């Protein structure tokens, strides 16, 4: 056998094997693809807007979950909770809200960045508030926030007058002392600036009527979640 016949015979065998493999692959593909049905194609009449609307209404009637009555209602905006007015504001906030222009001077004057603006849609302005559970009022002697107010919305305290922002409440289950079962931590008592506002009953801190709700005990509490909250 010469070289030409040798190559010709070898190639013919190779092509025969390839052709046989291709036939097997094609047959397998037919079996797999034969199980899938083609998606229905909308006719021009079925694809018109009127027809699609009719189909949508029919589906909505058949499936109650698609009806508008069962659709989730939009969530209403929840107002901020547990916020306090700045020092020097009246207790109910009537005078403060009527005179405050939302200028923000008291916010900028606070050396501890305790105050922040809160939008008031009814008044159409941003009213300064504070949340002593996040950032305590440090009860500055000169109250620069009050001094900075040009409208008299927040007024200086009278002699011997003490500000009142709320009252602290203990969550003893989060307190370190409840875990150690002894008086291990006294951080809240050390931080409290008002004499007699915080007392210990055994290893449990309690708050008296003298508490003004400044939040300094909350800031000093080392636990998470905090074992104290001002309300």
From TrEMBL:
The keyword Iron-sulfur applies. One of its GO terms (molecular function) is iron-sulfur cluster binding. Residues 91-120, 128-160, 203-231 form the 4Fe-4S ferredoxin-type domain. Residues 26-74 are annotated as: Disordered. The keyword Cytoplasm does not apply. Keywords: Iron, Iron-sulfur, Metal-binding. InterPro entries: 4Fe4S_Fe-S-bd, 4Fe4S_Fe_S_CS. It comes from the Bacteria. Pfam families: Fer4 (PF00037), Fer4_7 (PF12838). This is 4Fe-4S dicluster domain-containing protein.
């Amino acid at each position: 056998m010469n070289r030409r016949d040798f190559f010709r015979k070898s190639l013919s065998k190779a092509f025969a094997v390839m052709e046989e493999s291709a036939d097997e692959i094609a047959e397998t593909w037919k079996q797999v693809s034969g199980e899938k049905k083609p998606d229905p194609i909308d006719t021009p009449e079925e694809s018109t807007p009127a027809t699609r609307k009719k189909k949508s209404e029919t589906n909505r009637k058949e499936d109650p979950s698609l009806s508008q009555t069962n659709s989730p209602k939009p969530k209403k905006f929840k107002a901020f909770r547990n916020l306090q007015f700045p020092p020097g504001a009246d207790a109910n906030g009537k005078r403060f809200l009527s005179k405050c222009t939302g200028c923000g001077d008291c916010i900028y004057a606070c050396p501890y960045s305790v105050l922040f603006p809160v939008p008031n849609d009814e008044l159409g302005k941003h009213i300064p508030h504070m949340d002593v559970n996040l950032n305590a009022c440090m009860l500055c002697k000169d109250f620069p926030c009050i001094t900075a107010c040009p409208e008299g919305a927040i007024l200086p305290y009278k002699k011997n007058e003490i500000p009142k922002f709320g009252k602290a409440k203990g969550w003893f289950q989060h307190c370190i002392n409840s875990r150690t079962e002894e008086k291990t931590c006294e951080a809240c008592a050390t931080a409290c600036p008002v004499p007699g506002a915080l007392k210990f009953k055994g290893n449990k801190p309690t708050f008296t009527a003298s508490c003004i709700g400044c939040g300094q005990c909350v800031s000093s509490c080392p636990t998470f979640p905090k074992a104290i909250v001002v309300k």
